[in-house]
Specification:
Length: 322
């Protein structure tokens, strides 16, 4: 097992199935142009072999499939089938929900039981303005069908001043009523927001402001969360839970256990570092040759983690896997 001086190790792997997305969210891409798949994205089988090797080399026990938008990838089915044979304790998927209703049978057949659905507003106009793609009604319908099919749903919302801060309570109530757990993600200084401090500052909503707004309508108490959880978790008695990923207000770098594998075969040990390590060529090698080389790269990737706090980076979340 590879462990650093702070006792951190990689336990959670996020694999970006594609950098392509059918949205162009304002916090992710600056110019509204949707990203297309990179030319050199790896075949599904190679990515799945990457997962298998990383499980062994790093001791990964949780996998999250993400992107880009994983549900638009033509490699989704083959990847899910290959990953289902690995016997992982927990496999989940992050999606914008646009194709969720259509892909639900495939996800169920692959054993996916937990979904994170990104949804920043219940207002169709604000939805169009922020996501710059897709249709709100499709997302809501997809979540309803997935929930009815027994999937556990977390909703990811990035609250932003001037864009959707007025949606904090409506979205929270919507989720509480349906048994979805809403997770607020503090805006991160990634991509163009790492370069434009003003744009970041103008929109940023921090934990304190968020909790004050929620406190206007609900009493809440902090709930327990696993030691390496990125989200602070709160309980609204009799109604449910919500979470806050407060990367700016309460950094979680000291206990971070996340590792990312991009669709083109790059390992990222930290969202706040531009360092990356190519493993694509190792995935054609047999296990006994690949694992020692992979372990050396994992040591480097672990050293990329920030000691204490997220500082931001010009990398775009879509490319490395949000
Ligand atoms: N397409 C999928 C989706 O929409 O969930 C997966 C990829 S998306 C990049 C994953 C998550 O990253 C989303 O929940 C999105 O809100 C978040 N994200 C992207 N850029 C962000 C930023 N600058 N600050 C905070 N969250 C961000």
């Amino acid at each position: 097992m590879i462990v650093d001086r702070q006792g951190r190790r990689f336990r959670n792997l996020r694999v970006s199935l594609t950098a392509a997305c059918n949205y162009a969210c304002t916090y992710c891409v600056p110019n509204g142009k949707r990203l297309v798949a990179a030319q050199d994205e790896l075949p599904a089988e190679a990515l799945a072999r990457g997962v298998a090797y990383l499980v062994e080399a790093a001791g990964i026990d949780q996998l999250r499939i993400t992107g880009g938008e994983p549900l638009i990838s033509p490699r989704l089915e083959a990847f899910l089938a290959a990953v289902a044979t690995l016997g992982l304790k927990d496999t989940s998927l992050t999606t914008n929900g646009q194709l969720l209703a259509r892909k639900l049978p495939l996800l169920q057949a692959a054993g996916i039981r937990r979904l994170n659905v990104s949804l920043d507003t219940l207002d169709p106009n604000a939805f169009r303005r922020i996501a710059r793609g897709g249709d709100l009604a499709c997302v809501l319908e997809g979540m309803a069908q997935a929930s009815a099919a027994g999937m556990r749903i977390k909703v990811n919302m990035v609250p932003m001043r001037g864009q959707n801060f007025d949606q904090v309570l409506p979205l929270l109530d919507y989720c509480l009523e349906r048994g979805y757990e809403l997770r607020f993600i503090e805006l991160m200084r990634m991509g163009h927001l790492a370069r434009d401090a003003n744009a970041f500052r103008q929109q940023f909503v921090g934990l304190e402001q968020l909790l004050t707004r929620i406190g206007l309508a609900h009493g809440y108490v902090q709930a327990a969360a696993p030691q390496d959880a990125t989200a602070l978790r709160y309980h609204i008695p009799g109604k449910g839970y919500f979470g806050v990923i407060a990367n700016e207000s309460v950094p979680f770098c000291r206990t971070c256990s996340r590792l990312r594998l991009s669709s083109t075969g790059w390992l990222h040990g930290c969202l706040s570092s531009s360092n990356r390590h190519y493993i694509g060529e190792l995935l054609d090698k047999p296990r006994h040759q690949a694992l020692p080389a992979l372990q050396r790269l994992l040591v480097k990737a672990l050293a990329d983690k920030q000691e204490q706090a997220f500082a931001g980076d010009v990398m775009v979340m879509k490319v490395i896997g949000g």
